[in-house]
Amino acid sequence: MIIDPPSPESFAFSCSPESGVTPSTLTRRLTSGQYRSALRAILQDRLGGQFQAVWAEALDSVERTPEDLPSTLEDYRRMSQGVDQSRVEAWFGVGQTVAIAATSNDGRLASLTNGCAANPNRGCVESFVRSFGQAAFRRPLADDEVAFLVDEVFDMSQPTTAGWRDLVTTILNSPDFLYVFEAGEGSGSARRLTGLELASRMALHFWGSGPDDELMQVALEGGLENEAVYAEQVRRLARDPRARESFDEFVTDWLQLWRRPDPSLVTDRADFVAYAGTDFPSATLLEEARQELLDLVYHFTFVEPSTIDVLMTTRAGFARSTGLARLYGLETPWTPGQPPLQLPAERAGIMTRVGMLLNDQATTRPILRGAAVRKRLLCDQLGLPANMDGLRLTEADDHQTTRQAIESLTMQDDGGCKGCHQLLNPPGFILEAFDGLGRHRDRETVFSAEGELLAQHPLALEVDMLVDGMNLQLSGPREMAVALAGSHQVRACFARQYVRFTFGRLESVRTDGCVLESVRQKLEAGATLREVFEDIALEDAFRTVAKS
Amino acid sequence: MNQSSINRRHFLKGLGGFSLAVPFMGSLLPREARAQAAMQRQKRFVFIGSDHGGIYPQHMYPEVALTNSSLLLGASGRAPDHRVHWSPLNVSINGSSASLSPVLSGPNSRLTQAVADKMNVIAGLDFSTYLGHHRALLGNMGSNDGGDFVPMASIDQLIAWNSAFNVDEPRQRSVAMSTGYANGSTLRYSQSARRSAGQLSAVQPSTDPRQIWRSLFDGFTAPEPGETRPLVVDRVINHYQSLRNGALGPSSRLSKADRDRLDAHMQALFELERKMDAPAPSPSCTTPDSPSGGNARQKLEQAMAITAAGIKCGLTHVATFGVIAEPLSQSTAWNNWHEQIAHAGSGSWGGHNPAYQQVHVDAQRAVFESTFLTLVEHLDQDAGEGQTYLDDTLIAWSMESGEQTHNNYSTPVVTAGSAGGYFATGRFVDLRNHDNMSVASSGSPFRRPGTMYARFLSNVMQSMGLTPADWASELRTVQNSVFEEGARGYGYYNYHPSSFWMSGVDLRRDVWPEQHWRNADEPIPGWVVG
Asked: Which helix (H) or strand (E) holds B480?
């Protein structure tokens, strides 16, 4: 094996004078996850012991709000920013449902209004509007806003329960709750976020929710302008348990864990039943396999902060169930809070985990496995096949392995497929060391549709794989893992991925060059994943908004 | 204080005024225009798109002698005269089965000659560029994997928001459902369905017939007598307006992007208000029961029944469905639909697996029966004045692939209804130029060039009362300077590089001369009346 990569600067981003901040052309809305988390936090804070009952009544309506769907172009859910009629109507419906549920009896109304509903006077109604509004708007309300809500919406001249309902509905449908307005301070195209805007951005990024009381207070007192105080708040938010959900969202979208098929649904295929044998997947295997990857990346980010190289090579296992552990050849699953399992030597890094390997057929999908390596870890720009007219099946049979079938189809000199597949195939072929259930294997077993054993082919795991612009001769998953761990391309790619997630849009190498380069340099310098995760908030780009 | 009872309509119905430009509302038309509109019959458009995998022409199209013809385009470049042919559709009966083709088959109690007389089958509608996996059947060619087209509004939304189309304002301008195909490919603009006035956003499809039922039939309650309190939707709208106009909070904090978002959101609130203010269905309207769920086929049939009920009640005039065929397959002879059925079943002729093609034919027949035929049954019922609801409707069914997988020659279209007499019916219309052998090959011996799918889309929109001026700005944006040269229809004026499909074949010279694009707003002979 040859590993002699070019210098890290080969993958450097240009932090040129015009770099800095990409102008926003679209005001961001809360993502579906942020909307639900923020709503829940607001109601929890206001309703105390009444929260569970109200939430239970509102849940059906909340769950009807459209999900953010990742797509080929919008590979992070945060990038899905459309607002269509159904979303507006769903938001409106939630506002009403919550308002009705929270005011449906005297006890709930008393909790919601802090007793004001029993004897409403201007002072206590204003107090409710200011506190409920601040929680929703992620900033204090101006006096004219308070007056509008009290006089125009609640109607002090005729205080009724309907007034409280209208207030809740209106505030929960306010643009200041649903959208993120960032005007910044000063003039010019690049403006520093105000303290309150910055607090909002921090909380939405790390927690997927609004600022808590402490952050809000610090922001109101101007504390976020103090570098040390700001850094302390960044660390507090990033290391708070509430950051886990947002972190998991990043990992899920980075590794596109939603792409894996569910093998437990295959119950009527004799070949798959024979293929799986005693490891026939349970209904929960897919979720367990996803969870393992989330636990793994979380562990090496927060529990045992490590560099990205470790993600590429680790044998640490986090299989929470017996069924998943057995696919790794282990008898005992991992218990959260305990040290990780030690997986067999053939496992090396995230790409060798069941969650990245699962298939719902009695075969593997080397092209898709290879695409995951090339696109998610190396950020190669590969389109879909340009001409699939006449594409044939690429499955093993009694004469050939899956690799042979794919090579004969995609590696013809005159076929037009070779350009991309000479990149895609090698990592996929290396991962042929694992079957469609993620089990390690030393030969490829082929069954007929009736479940009869047709063939057992020896595997060929030797490939030439392009990494960092160099053609590396690799002969197995561990060698690939080492190559990826040493790759500057992987670090530059991770910088892209995290910047994409943070800002919820496709990165621009021109205008995002400085933040991309900063993250890349940190990774090259051996920063831990926790430092990278946290320090994005220290970047100028995070604290600035550009106006076009 | 009062604990007044909750009135859902109080919450939803709006009375307040607003100053922003509002979408078309029929009630705001001048009296003369309303009188004229009342004399028109409301048309409807329903589109069904099914997913990936080609159906060979002998399995899709009727095998009939083509008795009528008309010149579509004279010889140009190396392309010979291009004639359109058509013949009546005749149902073949075999026992209890009736058939127009292997895919277009069903029980003889459902696929009758009377139904066939209201159908059309159209061959030879081509995309002149490669789309890969795509969801472009309603015109949004940006919705494809691997291409570099920018998104376009889909024609269902251009129709649904067009004032000429909406004789009666429906509660739901459109309903959409997807069982896995074409999610989010139906696009509309946030304001007035125009690129210049707003941002494109995807219409989120329902995934279950119960969602369609809720959107059409749930929530009608009579206003409570004596209710005087202003309504909450007005309060929310007022809040948006006050914010947008700088009347609340620091006025300088909103940028143009912020105001665009607010405008789009406000328009959605206006639309919500309009829907809730729409009159309840007449007493003669039959509200179907909320669907009970079931398997994939049952859910599709339920969705069709509910949509038809909504159409008959005047609650919607436009519906789109994205359907994947796989769950409708009853075969166990495959384990990987995409690679076996969609690809190995309909790739190069001679290299394909006929058993897999048959699985696909059977599954698409199930799509035909559970969606198209079900809708026809529910809509071909008396609507008064000697017409059925189907007569004023155009139902169209098409597929992601043409006659071979990832190959957009002859994307099949099957229709029912005449859109109020705009289309002739009961015909197999063959737009393929059988004298042009330029793209035939051993792998595709049956392949012949037709005309542009963009022309079909243009014809559909015109049948619904739109004119090319209604989508000219959209076309100009996506076609740039090429538009100025005279391309028409609805789509990208674009040829894939000549070497792509057939070495040595120049698509512009040999296959689709430019006149196909220049004529793409003109009626398709044999299909459009007159």
From this structure: helix B472-484
